[in-house]
Structures
1.
Amino acid sequence: MQKTFFMIKPEIVAARTQRCGEILAMVNADGFRITELALRRLARPTVAEFYAEHHGKPFYDNLLEYITSGPVICAGLEREDAVGRLRALIGATDPAKAAAGTIRARFGTSLTQNAVHASAGRADAERELALIFGR
Ligand code: CDP
Ligand code: MG
């Protein structure tokens, strides 16, 4: 069993629609077990550490503003090949390029507001789970 980190981004949480539930249902339907789940308003330093790899990129400041703009739903997820399977389930970063049926294709609205986050690799998953949920 492998673990990964998943986040539903602020524009989905703020919308007060059924989308949060639909997204979590898609995750469960793909065989993931939810091991942690929390609604969090992430502090700017936490998000800066979370997205440290993007520091200095043109979209970085906008990304920090966006992720700290409201509460997000954070989850730890477990299944075989969790990291790879969750990245496949969410789809490409740009919702316009994400495969049909993926979470980002269904719920993403722009390259920035792409509905969800999933860890890109096993090391990222461990780092992100520790940062958000602690050891
Ligand atoms: O989230 P993912 O790993 O697919 O993509 P990333 O390249 O690690 O980028 C992190 C996040 O930054 C994306 O999910 C987008 O929300 C945002 N982003 C952006 O606003 N503009 C870009 N050109 C690239 C990414
Ligand atoms: Mg990434």
Note: The first strand starts at residue 2 and ends at 8.
2.
Amino acid sequence: MSLPALDAQTAQPVAHSAAGTVLLSVVIPTFNEAQNVREMISRLDVALKGIAWEAIYVDDNSPDGTAAEAKALAATDDRVRCIKRLGRRGLASACIEGIMSSAATYVVVIDADLQHDECILPRMLSLLTNDSADLVIGSRYIPGGSADAFASSRASFSKLANRIAQMLLGVSVSDPMSGFFMMRRDRFEQVAGELSSIGFKILLDIMVTARGHLRVVEVPYEFRERLFGESKFDARIGLEFLGLILAKLTRGIVDPRFVSFALVGTVGLAVHLLALLIALRLGTHSFPIAQSIATLMALASNFLLNNMLTYRDRRLSGFGLLWGFLGFCAIGAVGAIANVGIASWLYSEHSVWWLAGAAGAVMGALWNYSMSSQFVWRTR
Ligand code: GDD
Ligand code: MN
């Protein structure tokens, strides 16, 4: 890989390393950020004066028309591009896709909502071009930085998540959840295949996956207030974070999506028992009918919760929801047969009832999970 052109006297990156070559790709993930697009580009224009940059918007088909806004700009400014993704959601996967579409030597991810301070970009870049670092993080939690724009509840969550990540995963940087970081693209591509594309925490994932092989430097900045639009952060993203921690701690053996699927299944069991109780008390005296009603309720609850949580990035709606539910029931029926078959066989071999029962349940859950990942919530 050739190094970027540097001005011999100042060691600053030069505008164009060769004819028209882009030195820095600025990847900007968006969901409902239409009002921030123009302002972002004019700020980059000022902050990155003298540097050959491009902006890559990655938009998940925002209903507010963010992609149209970005493409309108792209039509007149060839430094701007927009990838519009259909049928998918998610910050981490958007960042990965944007970076993978770059051919520049360096890439930076920055929020579209102007909360990250673009003025530190040249400093971040020079740390990479003079080879002082492989990864530079815009940090809110080192002297000179601040996260005062966070509401106090969000601030404590952010601090707690940082603490957990630092303790469990052994990352020593102060802001491993930052959504603002710059790195050499070749370094990114080395780890890209192992990244989990679910959730918000791509930077943490990159550092853990690289297992200490990246020289990391943090640059402080003040996290700003949002002017337009609203944050997409919610409780589900907190759950995804726990899933990512679990996956990374077990070196990828535990799939965060399966954890979510299994948790939903546990809730389904509670729904089942509750529905059974209510049906027996209030309605029918026939146990088979009550058990059938309870089974249907549990299936519906599992299906809807998985659609909301486990597969939120591939969420079904309208007719897709109906077909999905039918498929989910069919898969569940086959899973139940497999479950009973395996449990009965194990029981006949070893006659430890709880082991046989649990093994059957786990096999059934794995079957349901892998089949519904492939056929009900398949990636388009
Ligand atoms: N393409 C795409 N798809 N972009 C998304 C999605 C999505 O599903 N969800 C959010 N984004 C974009 C937003 O449009 C914004 O540009 C950026 O990702 C950050 O989202 P915010 O909703 O503004 O996040 P925040 O300000 O609450 O969270 C900040 O702090 C987190 C750590 O505590 C951000 O800096 C995060 O990046 C950071 O992880
Ligand atoms: Mn934000």
Note: The domain at 24-232 is CATH 3.90.550.10 (Spore Coat Polysaccharide Biosynthesis Protein SpsA; Chain A).
